[in-house]
UniProtKB/TrEMBL annotation:
Descriptive protein name: Lrp/AsnC ligand binding domain-containing protein
Domain Transcription regulator AsnC/Lrp ligand binding: 6-74
Leader peptide range in chain numbering: none
Superkingdom, natural source: Archaea
A Pfam family it matches: AsnC_trans_reg
InterPro entries in alphabetical order: Dimeric_a/b-barrel, HTH-Siroheme_Decarb, Tscrpt_reg_AsnC/Lrp_C
């Protein structure tokens, strides 16, 4: 299982639209509108890298209101 955090910058005024599109996808386990450099943060879970690629290419890239994303894959390190 891969857990990742996707930081999203949205075209101004489209935060609610992107939030609604993403909250209905099965990979998105948590989603928040936030203040700061990014507009939305989503926690996603997928089985493997291939599914992460699919989420990125077939879901995120198809939402025209998204300007930029940064995906952070969570480490299993528990130091």
């Amino acid at each position: 299982m891969i857990e990742a955090f996707v930081l999203i910058i949205v075209k101004p005024g489209n935060e609610d639209k992107v939030y609604e599109k993403l909250k209905g996808t099965p990979q998105v386990k948590e989603i928040y509108k936030v203040y700061g450099e990014y507009d939305i943060i989503a926690r996603i879970e997928v089985e493997n890298i291939k599914e992460l690629d699919h989420f990125h290419d077939e879901i995120l890239r198809r939402i025209n209101e998204i300007e930029m994303t940064e995906t952070l894959i969570a480490s299993s390190y528990r130091g």
